[in-house]
């Protein structure tokens, strides 16, 4: 079992399979246009599988596929199919724009948990946040996922002055749908125009929802990043991910593998461990994973105290 120096057991790996995306969410995608992937720079399907296998030998039993947008990668079906051979629970984070083409594949690969980004239900606001007119398609794909019995969580990044007015409507989705709508505090990454003044906090989100609904605390799951609340009479529930105002690093069990094969021991880590280069040279990567984890800081990559955060852009990490 992988343990860090604070005794935290790590059994969850998030693998990014691409840094490309078919949306351009303002809080995620930096201004510089990402070019197509340089041949050879990114993990191939078999490299993803072989590297993931080493992680499972070390006790990883949950893998989430992320990106960029995972479903823009042309080999995505092969990636899921290969990984479904491993003894892990497979999950995916997606903007859901293309997911109607893949529901059968996901079922066949045993994927049940799907997180979908959706930051407003207002079409104009959606266009201005994502630079696309795809709200209708994405919403109908979310319904399709629910009809097919996937467990869906909706990820809503709340930005002050941009979409906090859409919080109540999104929370209202839990009335008839058995979804968890998770409101996420806006986090800083390279090139994403973050400022402390744009953070709409956990307490503000709660107060906003309370102005319309009777909400009550429900138990959080072990290692969960969100603080969960129920709404009287609703089928689903809400969650709040409060990385900025109430960090929750004490129960962290996550590691990240970027599309170019670097291990990040935290979403906010400055340091990275180059697993892909070592793997290609035929070197043993088990020890590299263990030592990469041993450098993990207790909270948010140890970077927030200084106020100067060195990191990649979110789309280059894999959220
Ligand atoms: N394209 C997929 C999607 O949108 O779900 C997967 C990748 S995306 C980077 C993963 C998650 O990161 C999304 O839920 C997105 O909302 C979240 N995210 C991206 N930038 C963020 C930021 N600055 N603050 C908080 N969450 C962010
Ligand atoms: Fe693409 Fe997801 Fe980032 Fe939006 S949040 S730009 S959908 S990777």
Number of domains: 1
- The order of strands across the largest sheet is 9-10-11-8-7-6-5-4-3-12-13-14
Oligomer: single chain
CATH fold-level topology: TIM Barrel
Low-confidence stretches: none
Distance between the termini: 24 Å
Name the bound molecules: S-adenosylmethionine, iron/sulfur cluster
Architecture (CATH level 2) name: Alpha-Beta Barrel
CATH class call: Alpha Beta
CATH superfamily: Aldolase class I
Number of strands: 14
Rounded average pLDDT: 94
Helix-residue proportion: 25-40%
- In one word, what is the shape? globular
What can be said about the biggest beta sheet? Answer: 12 strands, mixed
Describe this structure in words.
The chain has 319 residues and is α/β, with parallel strands linked by helices. The chain has a single domain, classed as TIM Barrel. It contains ten helices and 14 strands. The strands form two sheets. It has a twelve-stranded mixed β-sheet with strand order 9-10-11-8-7-6-5-4-3-12-13-14. The two termini are 24 Å apart. Bound molecules: S-adenosylmethionine (SAM) and iron/sulfur cluster (SF4). S-adenosylmethionine is lined by residues 21, 27-28, 66-67, 69, 93-95, 115, 117, 155, 157, 184, 186-187, 189, 192, 314-315, 319.
How do the helices and strands line up, and which of them pair or pack?
Elements (H helix, E strand, L loop, with lengths): L1 E2 L5 E2 L1 E5 L28 H13 L4 E5 L9 H8 L5 E6 L8 H6 L4 E5 L5 H8 L4 H13 L3 E8 L8 H6 L7 E6 L16 H9 L4 E3 L9 E5 L5 E5 L12 E4 L4 E3 L8 E2 H6 L5 H9 L19 H4 L2
Parallel strand pairs: 3-4, 3-12, 4-5, 5-6, 6-7, 7-8, 8-11
Antiparallel strand pairs: 1-2, 9-10, 10-11, 12-13, 13-14
